[in-house]
Design brief:
The protein has 1195 residues and is mainly beta. It contains 6 helices and 89 strands. 3% of the residues lie in helices and 39% in strands.
Length: 1195
């Protein structure tokens, strides 16, 4: 999007890019049209439908934010064309792996670039206010006075703000850049000059720079996933006091590279502060065979860890006062060096002496163990080098430039032996017996269990580290893995590279995913947390209460509920299980006395011969658990387990599965303490149609929330002493039981009485979700079942044999079946909704005319789950929340709730689509000022009928609550019955401050976007786009507050804001007097940004009025409020005319006396009211990029 003010600067060149760039048109950014090359990016979005070519010199972004869409391209035609983000400005270059943002040469865009081309344009320079140490004479490093002019006249940088924010670089590729004016005056691929740690730098490549790839001139900026390839000078360089941290760094030098790293503190004064002292972890550096890898000099420090330095002629040179820092501020740990010569220029032997004493350092390319970086900004990893199991460079880097994405091959790790075979090209390493020292399993080998393998023993606790993407397998049911008490497993998989524990047949590709089970033993973890199955004479939960695990799997139990046995993250266990006898079995994963200090997240057990997961006492918790195809119970517990689970999918195999859950406290003594009393939330059980969903027996309790049991022959059986737990230790809240028989067992009547008195739905219907807010473990969810919706399906990408985890309840009672619309079951909403109705995300909902939620004197509640869509098909379809009723629309960022038109659902809505259905109206009891004759405003009798027969509103309760709106998008609505009788996108009519409104958008409404008719309701994070009339309107005495508001008027819009107190009686009370902070209005260039009239006030803080023909018009009695009821503090007005109307001079006097800027410059930030609503900040405008996320539409 190019604003009108830049139409002479950014023009179509008439040329097109090559086919590699999609033959897109090339637009020229003519620097000569700009004063001093400075461009104001307000309203500018560089999209991905064209190429933007800088012409005529350096382009400076002098203020504001340069926004670039994913896939955008900026090009330069010579070394004199480069881009500078000046101090105080920002760049928002957030690409994706599929659509990286590219900065390149015109020759590349035109298809004429050669592989070894460099220096075809200047590069990217970012200047910030973070500390540096190269100061003007008399200034102290790290202070505001310590600034510097960048090389090649690239702007001033430096200051005293280490957290300065210069924007975002994410999935960015800079190619063929660089300029050598002279040896001390150069342009790099990217120069970070005094850039602060508030700047985000992730997934960035610089390819074929003529000078350095990336250079840091002081500052504190950090980075992750950085690649520098083909640089002609140093790949990485720093000076002037850089103190950032970077991780996952890949360097590949080619024909003309110099050092991999050349680094200084400060030339001429090597000990100046702040000292250059960055931290680097997980770097893979493939150096030029005739050059040096690392040259550290002039007082710089460096903490280098978990890295591979290879291919260079010489690995290391340390000069000057940097040598004095060895072992203190210059350290290596977990680093393997592999060069022709290890180091040079070490005449006193200091470097050699340090290396000999360093932790996990090899000077000859040998194996080293990863260490935990000392710097908290760096993540602990289990691998050395830039890449673990996942190739983070895939898809977005320059093709053919990154050629070494494998981990360093150090052979089988110590503690394992080479089996002398390979499977699918991977070496097999054997593990056997008891491992008594820490062991790391890397993803570039396979690991075979030979018999029972135990990690640690009483005298020698050990940790088993398993990298993401690693596979461990067994060949028989006697092969299993045990983590002993006091030892740990750190299995750190990822969504794209889970840790897999499986059978040899699976590794060899012969396992049947549907039927194979019991091909190896399984995983057992033993801890010291409390259990209740003790030796005779011992008391449950004490140190003496221990037990030997089944199948001789080790001792467990103790007195430490917070015991830590490590981490399981993205771990899949397949085809395991062993039945020695009916009471001596191996489960997929057995958590035996495991404590709550153990972290368990994203685990799956598939096709186990016995139970999937069993908890034998302990306090372990877990989230994101998948249990599929298990031959006995999917989830089992006994011996006093008191942990919690959330997000659990159980899918029982039709061929062999037993109970979804079978649970005991203790067989033989059912009331022993600690009693099994777990808590489970957001579980879905898809049961075996011949078996049972949940079996609770032998004294166990269970708190079950927001869960679904379906598909089993019977849903629930409660037996023995567990019957006495009903209503106390057994609690069901927000549970659906949908089986052929809901309840069977020893005392059906008692269980049924419990269910009838609980928030339980029987059959294919959804109960109200339980309120989990405030719980220390559970996430507060507004949905029932394990998976919120397809957009938030946490099972995707890492599980195997996975059924659909979503739940379908059919059309709720009180709605009608309309068949299928938009690929989902469609349910009709009509008439008046009574009682409580929940709209679940598995259906679409279609409005039939005016739909009322509740009625006067008969309130109702409408709950809408995240990800749900409500559809209107004509202007007569709209929804009204009546006074006293409530709407709880609980969307999320990833799954907003959408009110929209049928054409949108069918994919045919266009940019000018509007007025295809009515809208949303919410009525409340809060004060208004438009009353029947003789009634005083703000009293119970002051009520009004809403436009378009939308219901009564108004009253005397300013704190009235009409519910909550979170992440709600309303599109293509609006109806004009007549000029004074209209439907807006959302009409808040007499709505009170007890109503919660945050993250809402109204898009393309035929009338106003949002209108407040009196009331006191507040809102945050509001987006209003594309409306045919005013985006924001208020009248009738609205006194609420807004913060973070983004308004963008398009083809047919009127005012950004049009606001009244009361037409016909402009001074009536309560007076419309809202407060708004952090608003940006991008007005139509032939319309007005803000129109205040008919007695309304407005307190406006830290906001921008931009692009309009007129910024502000004040009329009528509102003029008398200037300076009292109308206050502007920290407001930018940048329109063709900033002030027009009935009394321009009075308004101008007000503006001149206020903290207001007119034109492109920003004013100082104002002081926001300290009233508990406004978040204090110094940002001018909505800063919409920081919160628009993925839930908004069209911005």
């Amino acid at each position: 999007m190019i604003p009108d003010g830049l139409s002479d600067v950014i023009t179509d060149s008439g040329r097109s890019a090559s086919s590699a760039y999609g033959n897109k048109p090339i637009f020229t950014i003519d620097v000569a049209q700009l004063t001093d090359g400075q461009l104001d990016p307000t309203g500018l979005l560089l999209g991905n439908d064209a190429i933007y070519e800088i012409a005529g010199g350096a382009l400076f972004i002098a203020g504001g934010t340069l926004e670039m869409a994913p896939g955008a391209v900026i090009a330069g035609g010579s070394q004199f064309e480069y881009l500078v983000i000046s101090q105080g400005a920002r760049i928002d270059a957030e690409g994706t792996a599929e659509q990286p943002i590219i900065f390149t040469a015109s020759a590349d865009v035109e298809g004429t670039v050669e592989d070894n081309d460099r220096g075809l344009w200047g590069g990217l320079v970012i200047n910030g206010f973070a500390p540096i140490n190269d100061c003007p004479e008399g200034e102290t490093g790290g202070t505001e006075g310590c600034t510097k002019e960048g090389e090649a006249n690239s702007g001033t940088f430096g200051g005293a703000d280490p957290e300065d924010d210069s924007g975002i670089l994410k999935y960015v590729n800079v190619r063929y850049s660089g300029s050598n004016v002279d040896p001390e005056n150069q342009l790099n691929g990217i120069a970070f000059q005094g850039v602060g740690s508030g700047t985000v730098v992730e997934y960035v490549q610089v390819h074929n720079a003529l000078d350095d790839g990336i250079e840091w001139f002081g500052g504190t900026v950090n980075g992750k996933y950085l690649a520098v390839t083909g640089a002609a000078d140093d790949s990485l360089d720093w000076t002037d006091g850089w103190t950032g941290a970077i991780q996952y760094v890949y360097v590949e030098q080619t024909d003309s590279g110099d050092n991999v790293i050349e680094a200084d503190n400060r030339e001429g004064d090597e000990n100046l502060e702040p000292r250059s002292n960055p931290a680097i972890a997980n770097m893979s550096a493939f150096g030029a065979p005739s050059e040096r890898a690392l040259r550290l000099r002039r007082g710089t420090g460096l903490a280098l860890s978990n890295s591979l330095i290879t291919g260079s002629d010489r690995c290391l040179r340390i000069d000057g006062t940097s040598r004095d820092l060895l072992g203190a501020e210059l350290t290596f740990a977990g680093v393997t060096f592999d060069c022709a010569t290890m180091h040079d220029e070490d005449t006193d032997g200091a470097v050699e002496a340090y290396l000999a004493s360093a932790t996990n350092v090899s000077q000859n390319g040998g194996s080293v163990e990863a260490v935990t970086p000392a710097d908290p900004r760096l993540e602990p990893t289990t691998f050395v080098g830039a890449f673990g199991a996942t190739d983070w460079s895939a898809g977005w880097t320059t093709p053919g430039t990154i050629n070494n994405t494998e981990q360093p091959d150090f052979g089988c790790p110590g503690g394992t032996t080479d089996a002398g075979e390979t499977i699918d090209g991977l070496r097999v390493c054997d593990i056997e017996g008891t491992v008594t020292s820490d062991l790391t399993l890397t993803a570039n080998n396979l690991y075979q269990l030979n018999g029972k393998v135990t990690i640690g023993d009483d005298a020698n606790p050990a940790t088993l580290n398993i990298q993401a993407g690693t596979t461990v397998f067994g060949g028989t049911s006697f092969d299993f893995l045990v983590i002993a008490q006091g030892s740990k497993i750190e299995a750190l998989g990822s969504r794209t590279a889970p840790v897999t524990l499986t059978a040899r047949a699976d590794v060899e590709g012969t396992a049947d995913i549907a039927t194979d089970r019991g091909l190896w033993g399984g995983l057992v973890i033993n801890g010291r947390a409390p259990i209740n199955d003790c030796p005779e004479g011992a008391t449950g939960g004490t140190e003496a209460c221990t037990k030997q695990g089944e199948a001789d799997s080790g001792l467990f139990g103790g007195a430490d509920p917070a015991d830590d046995s490590g981490t399981l993250n993205y771990v899949v266990v397949k085809y395991a299980g062993s039945n020695v006898d009916p009471e001596n079995q191996l489960n997929g994963i057995a958590f035996q006395g495991v404590g709550s200090g153990t972290e368990i997240s994203h685990i799956q057990v598939h096709n186990n011969l016995d139970d999937g997961v069993e908890f034998f006492g302990g306090t372990a918790n877990a989230k994101y658990v998948v249990l599929t195809g298990n031959a006995d119970d999917s989830l089992d517990w006994t011996d006093g387990w008191t942990g919690s689970l959330q997000y659990v999918v159980i899918d029982q195999a039709d061929d062999a599965g037993d109970n979804g859950i079978e649970a005991d406290n203790r067989e033989g003594d059912e009331n022993l303490e600690p009693r099994s009393l777990p808590r489970i939330a957001n579980m879905t059980i898809n049961g075996n149609p011949a078996e049972r969903g949940i079996r609770l027996r032998r004294g166990t309790g269970l708190e079950l929330y927001n869960s679904v049991v379906q598909g089993s022959d019977s849903c629930l059986r409660v037996q023995g002493e567990s019957l006495n737990q009903l209503g106390s230790g057994i609690i069901f809240d927000g549970v659906t039981l949908d089986c052929a028989t809901v309840n069977e067992g020893d005392d059906v009547a008692a269980v049924q009485s419990f269910l009838d008195s609980s928030n339980v739905a029987e059959g294919a219907s959804a109960p109200a979700a339980a309120d989990l807010s405030g719980d220390a473990f559970f996430d507060a969810t507004g949905f029932v079942g394990a998976v919120e919706d397809p957009a938030n399906d946490w099972t995707s990408g890492w599980t195997v044999g996975m059924p659909d985890g979503n739940v379908s309840f059919g059309c709720p009672a009180g709605t009608g079946d309309l068949g299928t619309i938009g690929g989902k079951q469609a349910c009709q909403l009509s008439g008046t909704i009574a009682g409580t109705l929940t709209l679940t995300r598995d259906n679409n909902y279609v409005l039939d005319g005016k739909v009322l939620v509740g009625d006067e004197g008969a309130p109702a509640t409408l709950n809408i789950e995240s990800g749900t869509t409500i559809i209107g098909s004509n202007a007569e379809d709209f929804m009204v929340i009546s006074r006293g009723s409530q709407l709880f629309a609980m969307g999320t960022e990833m799954a907003p709730i959408t009110f929209t038109s049928l054409s949108d659902v069918n994919g045919v809505a266009g940019p000018s689509t509007r007025g295809e259905w009515g809208g949303l109206v919410i009525n409340g009891f809060a004060p208004i000022n438009d009353c029947p004759a003789g009634i005083e405003g703000g009293t119970a009798a002051c009520t009004k009928e809403g436009e378009a027969n939308s219901g009564l509103f108004g009253g005397d309760n300013p704190a009235d609550s009409s519910g909550e709106l979170h992440y709600v998008v309303v599109k293509y609505a609006g109806s004009n019955v007549d000029p004074e009788n209209q439907l807006n996108g959302i009409a808040f009519q007499g709505v009170g401050s007890g109503t919660v409104v945050e993250y809402i958008q109204v898009h393309n409404n035929l009338d106003d976007g949002v209108e407040f008719f009196g009331g006191t309701v507040d809102a945050k994070y509001v987006v209003l786009t594309g409306h045919a009339d005013d985006s924001l309107d208020w009248t009738d005495g609205w006194t609420g507050r807004l913060q973070y508001v983004y308004i963008e008027q398009t083809d047919t819009g009127d005012n950004g804001i049009e606001a009244d107190n009361r037409e016909g009686d402009e001074l009536v009370t309560p007076v419309s007097m809202p407060s708004i902070a952090n608003m940006t209005i991008v007005a139509r260039n032939d319309q007005r940004a803000v129109r205040l009239r008919r007695g309304t006030g407005l307190m406006l803080f830290n906001s921008q009025l931009l692009n309009g023909d007129t910024c502000l018009r004040v009329q009528g009695e509102s003029e008398n409020l200037l300076g009292t009821g109308i206050v502007f503090d920290g407001v930018q007005l940048d329109c063709t005319t900033n002030n027009e109307g009935d009394n321009v001079q009075a308004v101008q006097d007000f503006l001149d006396s206020s903290n207001v800027s007119e034109g492109a410059s920003l004013p100082p930030a104002g002081t926001l009211p300290a009233d508990g609503f406004f978040e204090q900040n110094s940002t001018i405008g909505a800063d919409v990029d920081s919160w628009k996320g993925t839930w908004t539409f069209g911005i």
